[in-house]
From TrEMBL:
This is B12-binding domain-containing radical SAM protein. It comes from the Bacteria. Keywords: Iron, Iron-sulfur, Metal-binding, S-adenosyl-L-methionine. SUPFAM superfamilies: Cobalamin (vitamin B12)-binding domain (SSF52242), Radical SAM enzymes (SSF102114).
């Protein structure tokens, strides 16, 4: 029996751990082929590829992000392959399973819950006697008294994870390991009960054998994996386990990057101390779900969170300079209105995470919050991902405004295109991060820029347009902001930029004068610059310069704006084999010329 397991990933670089777990468990008795596509692939391309494989059974793994596109594929498949058995499984259909089966006559079976053992049993019955009532964890249709009815079998008992084969050893995966994200689980389940999250429904945490886990990780690293993302809901729930795994990865990382979801307020100080001392920079990345700093909100969604301890963890990790942190917020939770969400945003931004993810509440099937939707006046979309449209405290108009914050937050802060500029504007001009992103986002939307593409220089030009508009605060030192924008623009290039977004004021003779001065007296730009020993021709090739009307070096040292001196900003590219720009400064008396 030819079996194909398929899914539509969000992006090409993603891989499906679920399909590989199913294949590993079932392939001892059934030939299994994995077929991965993306939600951007044309439906007919996917259908044509699956049709060419001529399977007797096709299984689809579905989530909120791919269910609608998967349904389109299934409906076309059913028309051209009327005899193929179609199976669905995954989080999106593990709840309201009977409703899904009634809604999708093209689907023959749905698996709810953990799928390895259930799929294997189901394939045995498809190939054998068809005793589907014995397949716990499956739903199907049968005819009774001349009428068709939907049957949802009881759930299957939890699997013994020690008995599951590894999903990471398929030879056909080796070639693509370096170019795709590998998803990896060391445990299943979550110890917490947040009512907006599917993970809260499964009680307890089960672990895979740690020695097999280490062996699989070593295999992946040695086979060329570059990014491994752990899907454990709370990687650090057991201190000793987390510490042992961190030590193992530090000793064996091989240049691979590892991403974890952690709960920051339970991270033990000794673990933080160990990471600060021993973790190589850049190999670990932490995702931390903050969601809200509003105590009333957290109580309503049964979320236990100690804000003081969370701040301690995030601050200590940031101060170590070893680990990037991605902090998550959810807009639209119970008891959170526009003003309290503004406070939540500012509380979290004050921690200066490398990435701040602003998401909007999804009313996921099976969650307690979806069942209690009426209690809070929720209105939400009927189709996946079931994003809220408003509630009794946060109307649609407020959500629309916050989406503008999300838009410019992604383009500017999370992309780290102008950190010096943004922090200056947030701390000294707009009063808070939320107010800056909101006012800029409102302006962005009124200009219609969300409908057109953006190159790097466009982002700078549009920020300048906003700062020059009547909607920006009065009294800011605009020349300082523009100077910081120029610094950020130069530092944002890997190679010497071909153009700038401002009118460059130096003529050729003045530029040549500065290049001569830098070549003849390099010590004026600092010891490191002098050590490079660059001549005029090399500087012409590798350097950009710009004059700023304030003392940039002093600003970068202590944040003060001094106009007692000006600055010649010098940024070098491609020297000593290094990518990106390196900034140097030459402090100038006000009005100084280029000549020595």
């Amino acid at each position: 029996m030819n079996v194909v397991l398929a899914t539509l990933n969000a992006k090409y670089i993603h891989t499906s751990l679920a399909l590989r777990c199913l294949k590993a468990y079932c392939e001892k008795d059934f030939p299994i082929e994995i077929a991965e596509y993306t939600i951007k692939d044309p439906v007919m391309n996917i259908v044509s590829d699956l049709y060419a494989k001529q399977p007797q059974v096709i299984g689809f793994s579905v989530y909120i992000w791919n269910i609608e596109e998967t349904i389109k594929v299934i409906r076309v498949l059913r028309k051209i392959m009327p005899d193929v058995r179609i199976v669905m499984g995954g989080p999106e259909v593990s709840y309201d399973t009977g409703e899904w089966l009634d809604k999708l006559p093209e689907v023959d079976f749905i698996i709810h819950g953990e799928g390895e053992e259930t799929l294997h049993h189901l394939l045995q019955e498809i190939q054998g006697e068809g005793k589907y009532h014995l397949v716990f964890g499956a739903a199907y249709r049968k005819v009774k008294n001349g009428a068709q009815e939907t049957v949802v079998n009881p759930p299957r008992p939890k699997l013994n994870l020690a008995e599951l084969p590894s999903p990471h050893r398929f030879p056909e995966d080796r070639e693509s390991l370096a170019n795709r994200v590998v998803y990896f689980e060391t445990s299943r389940g979550c110890p917490f009960s947040c009512s907006f999250c599917l993970s809260s429904i499964e009680v307890g945490v089960r672990y895979f054998d740690i020695e097999r886990t280490k062996a699989d990780l070593l295999y992946l690293i040695e086979a060329g994996a570059r990014t491994i993302k752990f899907v454990d809901r709370t990687f650090n729930i057991k201190r000793d386990y987390a510490l042992e795994m961190f030590k193992f990865l530090i000793e064996n990382h091989g240049g691979c990057v590892f991403q974890f979801e952690i709960t920051a307020d339970i991270m033990r100080p000794e673990v933080l101390d160990y990471l600060a001392e021993h973790a190589p920079p850049g190999i670990f990345r932490f995702e931390i779900g903050v969601q809200s700093t509003n105590d009333v909100t957290n109580l309503a969604v049964e979320r236990r969170q100690n804000w003081t301890k969370l701040v301690r963890t995030v601050t200590k990790v940031k101060d170590s300079g070893k680990i990037d942190q991605h902090l998550d917020l959810i807009a639209g939770l119970p008891h959170e209105d526009y003003d309290t969400f503004r406070k939540t945003f500012n509380d979290v931004f004050a921690l200066r995470p490398e990435e701040l993810q602003l998401g909007f509440l999804k009313m996921l099937r099976g969650t307690g919050l979806r069942r209690d939707a009426d209690k809070y006046g929720y209105v939400y979309a009927d189709q996946a991902p079931y994003e809220i449209l408003g509630n009794s405290l946060m109307p649609f108009s407020d959500l629309i405004r916050i989406k503008r914050v999300e838009d410019v937050l992604e383009k500017y802060w999370n992309a780290h295109r102008m950190d010096h500029t943004l922090l200056h504007l947030i701390d000294r001009v707009f009063g808070s991060a939320f107010d800056f992103f909101q006012r800029f986002g409102d302006y962005w939307e009124r200009q219609g820029w969300e409908r057109i593409g953006h190159q790097l220089e466009d982002l700078f030009s549009r920020l300048r347009a906003f700062l020059l508009s009547d909607e920006a605060p009065r009294g800011m030192e605009l020349d300082v902001v523009l100077g910081l924008m120029k610094l950020d623009y130069f530092l944002g290039h890997n190679h010497k930029p071909r153009k700038v977004w401002w009118e460059f004021g130096m003529d050729k003779s003045e530029l040549a004068g500065w290049m001569k001065r830098l070549a003849d007296a390099p010590e004026e730009a600092g010891e490191e610059f002098s050590r490079l020993g660059l001549g005029e021709k090399e500087l012409q090739k590798h350097a950009v310069v710009e004059r700023l009307p304030f003392d940039l070096e002093r600003y970068l040292q202590d944040g003060s704006v001094s106009r007692e001196a000006e600055t010649l900003l010098v940024v070098l590219y491609g020297t000593e084999g290094k990518r990106g720009g390196r900034a140097f400064t030459l402090r100038l008396p006000r009005g100084a010329a280029a000549a020595l």
